[in-house]
TrEMBL record, chain A:
The chain crosses the membrane at residues 20-40, 52-75, 81-104, 111-129, 135-155, 190-210, 216-237, 244-265. This is Uncharacterized protein. Keywords: Membrane, Transmembrane, Transmembrane helix. It comes from the Bacteria. It comes from Anaerobium acetethylicum.
Automatic annotation (TrEMBL), chain B:
The chain crosses the membrane at residues 40-61, 81-103. It comes from the Bacteria. Keywords: Membrane, Transmembrane, Transmembrane helix. This is Uncharacterized protein.
Length: 309, 151
C-alpha cells in the first residue's frame, strides 16, 4: 500500500512538472484512439480512412479545446455513414443535434463522456463508464453516457448492415429511414444497457457521498452489481441474447479499472503549474506560479527487536 | 518599482481569471433576473429547434403509414397532440433551466466575492504606494535605496 501511495505521489509530481506536455499528449491520445476506432469500425469513406489524416486531426485536437474533438469525431462518424447511406447519416446527424440541443449545451464539460463511452464499448469494458461517471460527476452524468451508448449502437447497426444499406437503389428511400429509426427504437439491448448505466451511476453517486471508510470502494462494487442485476433481469425477461461470460468478464475488468481510476486520478488534486500574464502601469509580468508541494516521504520506523529495559 | 505583495495578489487573481473565473466573470456582469431570463430564452429556442427535429424524425419513420392513410388522419387532432407535446417539453425544460441557472448564478456570485475582495485589496495597495511616493516627492527623496533606509 505504501508503495502505491509513493507511486501516486510520483505521478503527481511528474504531472506538476510537465503539465504543459502531459495534457496535450493525453488529449492527442484520446482523439487518436477515438478516430482510429471510428475508422476501424466504419471505414467506408476511403478518403478519410487514412492513418495520416487521423494523425493530423488528432494532432490538431491536442491543443484545441475538448469540444472540438467531440465535433470532429461526430463529423467523422457522419461522413463514414454517409458513404454507406445518406438516410442513416441524416438520422445520425439529427440525433447528434438533438443531443447537443437537449443536453450538451447545458453541460459542455461532459462532452468527453460521450466520446469515451463508445470507445469503452469497442474495448469491451463499457461497464466502467457509469462507475467512473458516478465517481466524479452527478447522477445527471448518466445522460451523456446514455448518448454515447446510442451512438455506439448506431455505429454497430451501420457496421452490421452496411451491405444491405449500400445495396439499396440510388436516391433517397423512405424505407431506409424507417429501418434505422425502428432498429434503434426497438433495440431492447440498448435500452436495458442504458437503464443499467443509469442505475449504476446513481448508486455509485449516492454511496460515495457517505462518510464511512472506503465508501468509494463500496460504491464501485454496488454500482457494478446494480449494472449486472439490471442486465441479467433484462436478459431473463426480455429475451435478449447476450454472452454471459463476456458480461461477467467485462464487469470484473470494469470494477478493477474503476478502482484504479479512483485511486490515481479522481482522488488526487492535480493542481498544476500556471503560466499567467498581466500588467500594471509600469511593467508586464510573465509569471510562472508553481504550487508548493507537500511531499510525503515514507517515515522511518524504528523497530525494537530486543526488549527495552 | 516592483511590489512583491502586489505581484503575489495579481498572480493569484490572474490564476483565478484563467481557471474558475473564466466561467464566473461573465456571469458577474448580469443582474440575476437578466441572467436567468436570458438563459431561459436561449433554452426555449434550442428546445423549439430540438422539438421540430424530433417531429421530423417521427414523421420520417412513420412516412409510409402517413402517406397511405393521409385521408383518414384527423389532422386537427394530430396537430393538437404535437402542440401539446411541445408545450409540455418546453415547460419542463424552462423549469429545469430556471433552477439550474439560478443555482449557477448563486455559485458564480459566491466565487466572485473573493475575487472582488482581492480587487479591493489591490486598489488599497496601489493607494499606499501612491501615498508613499507622494511623501517622497514632498521631501525631495527618491525610492532608490529604500531597502537600506527602511522607509
Amino acid at each position: 500500500m505504501t508503495n502505491l501511495l509513493v507511486f501516486k505521489e510520483r505521478i503527481k509530481n511528474f504531472y506538476n512538472k510537465y503539465e504543459i506536455y502531459v495534457t496535450p499528449f493525453l488529449k492527442f491520445m484520446l482523439a487518436f484512439i477515438a478516430f482510429v476506432l471510428i475508422n476501424m469500425n466504419l471505414g467506408f469513406m476511403e478518403k478519410i480512412n487514412n492513418p495520416l489524416i487521423v494523425f493530423m486531426l488528432a494532432l490538431l485536437c491536442s491543443f484545441l479545446p475538448f469540444g472540438i474533438t467531440a465535433v470532429m469525431a461526430a463529423g467523422l462518424i457522419v461522413a463514414h455513414i454517409y458513404a454507406v447511406s445518406l438516410e442513416v447519416a441524416l438520422v445520425t446527424l439529427i440525433l447528434m443535434l438533438l443531443m447537443f440541443l437537449l443536453y450538451y449545451r447545458f453541460a459542455p464539460k461532459d462532452g468527453y463522456l460521450i466520446i469515451l463511452t463508445p470507445i469503452s464499448f469497442a474495448l469491451n469494458i463499457p461497464y466502467v463508464m457509469p462507475l467512473a461517471a458516478g465517481l466524479m460527476g452527478t447522477p445527471i452524468s448518466a445522460v451523456p453516457v446514455a448518448f454515447g451508448t446510442v451512438i455506439y449502437y448506431i455505429i454497430r447497426y451501420v457496421k452490421d448492415n452496411s451491405t444491405a444499406l449500400s445495396n439499396s437503389e440510388s436516391g433517397v428511400s423512405v424505407e431506409n429511414f424507417t429501418y434505422i429509426i425502428d432498429s434503434l427504437v426497438n433495440n431492447k439491448t440498448m435500452f436495458i444497457i442504458i437503464a443499467a448505466f443509469v442505475a449504476a451511476t446513481t448508486a455509485v453517486y449516492v454511496i460515495r457521498q457517505f462518510s464511512f471508510d472506503h465508501s468509494w470502494f463500496v460504491a464501485i462494487v454496488t454500482g457494478g452489481l446494480a449494472e449486472l442485476l439490471v442486465i441479467i433481469v433484462g436478459i431473463l425477461t426480455l429475451d435478449i441474447d447476450m454472452n454471459f461470460t463476456s458480461l461477467i468478464l467485462g464487469a470484473a475488468a470494469s470494477f478493477a479499472i474503476a478502482a484504479v481510476l479512483r485511486f490515481f486520478i479522481f482522488s488526487v488534486d492535480y493542481t498544476r503549474t500556471e503560466y499567467v500574464q498581466f500588467e500594471d502601469d509600469e511593467y508586464y509580468y510573465y509569471v510562472k506560479a508553481v504550487p508548493k508541494l507537500v511531499i510525503t516521504t515514507p517515515e522511518k520506523k524504528v523497530k525494537h527487536i530486543n526488549k527495552q529495559k | 518599482m516592483l511590489n512583491e505583495e502586489r505581484i503575489k495578489l495579481m498572480t493569484k487573481m490572474a490564476i483565478y481569471e484563467k481557471r474558475e473565473g473564466k466561467e464566473m466573470l461573465p456571469v458577474g456582469d448580469y443582474y440575476k433576473s437578466d441572467y436567468v431570463s436570458l438563459k431561459m430564452v436561449t433554452t426555449g429556442i434550442s428546445i423549439t429547434i430540438a422539438y421540430i427535429l424530433l417531429v421530423v424524425l417521427w414523421g420520417i419513420s412513420k412516412a409510409e403509414y402517413l402517406m397511405a392513410n393521409i385521408h383518414k388522419i384527423d389532422l386537427a387532432y394530430l396537430i393538437k397532440k404535437i402542440a401539446a407535446g411541445y408545450i409540455l417539453l418546453l415547460l419542463a425544460y424552462l423549469l429545469i433551466s430556471f433552477i439550474v441557472y439560478m443555482l449557477k448564478y448563486r455559485a458564480a456570485k459566491k466565487s466572485l466575492k473573493k475575487y472582488y475582495k482581492q480587487l479591493k485589496q489591490l486598489g488599497a495597495l496601489y493607494e499606499d504606494e501612491a501615498s508613499v511616493s507622494d511623501s517622497l516627492d514632498e521631501t525631495g527623496g527618491g525610492p532608490d535605496h529604500d531597502e537600506f533606509t527602511g522607509v
